[in-house]
Amino acid sequence: MLSPKNFSPQQLAALAALALAVPISLSTYLLAPNWWIVLTFFIVIFSGSYGLILYTLQRFVYRKIKLIYKLIYQTKASKREEFYYNNILPQKSIEEVRQDVETWAKQRKAEIEVLKQNEAYRKEFLQNLSHELKTPIFVIQGYVDTLLNGGALDNPEVNKKFLVSTSRNVDRLVNLVDDLDEIAKLESGEQELYLENFVIQDIFKEVFESLSIKADDRQIKLSIKKGCELPLMVYADKEKIRQVATNLVDNAIKYGKQHGEVESSFYRIDGERILVEVSDNGSGIAEEHLGRIFERFYRTDLARSRKGGGSGLGLSICKHIIEAHQQAMHVRSTLDVGTTFGFTLISKKD
Does CATH place domain 113-188 in 3.20.20.70? Predict the structure, then answer.
């Protein structure tokens, strides 16, 4: 059924002109019962009313609508847009204009929500960054003040201990700045990738060997899952992927269960990609944290506390490295069962 709200300006003008012409023509017939006179009156009144009403609609109503569209798009109209405003827009029904405005309003609302969310993340990031910077700075400041003003400078045993602690915190600051710089380069595309073919299992075997002492301290077994030993060649930046593997295995050792196991697995998921996963059987991560686990400095209240050390940027760097390879990274976890981090890589290129 045709609804009046879906009428075009021409249809509205015709309907209004008809509503004027019919009763006036009928009244004329009562005064002069001549159908030729009545028909002439009808044509003149209908044509004149139609032209006047249509002109009024297009001149005043759609002029205001044109301004609304310009405010919506907030740009100086190009010649193409001016043609649209002058020729296409007046053909639209009020209902179509309403739908356009509602669609625009929904888009703006979604954009505002994203901006609010990003602003909240920005504030949280700055707070976390401030905390991460202040902690080592205050420690360094305390040791230096004690050495200079507390008389500890002349005590060889004490000053060496303080200088070692100061050096450790300086290293922490340097690592933090380096990590931030690396993320900035990865995000901006300035970090070059040196792509080559290599066996992904070999990287993890080397990482397992380099972290074996840390794993032995917690009596955690490092292994490649059975059935995943067959060498798989990937095409990626070898050193960057080594960095990702080291971070994931190190985290698995750090937050895994003592006497537990860290297991890596490798699968060919199609003709072009390899899936790599690192699993632990530790405490797991609550579901509400999984969506933000790759954010800078984001730590869960239990499994990823600051007591574990580190800059809090490791997972964020891993994600950026994998995305720089045009691939994806994911995480799945269950409390008291364990956590699995995974990512894909392009398989060997000829």
Answer: no
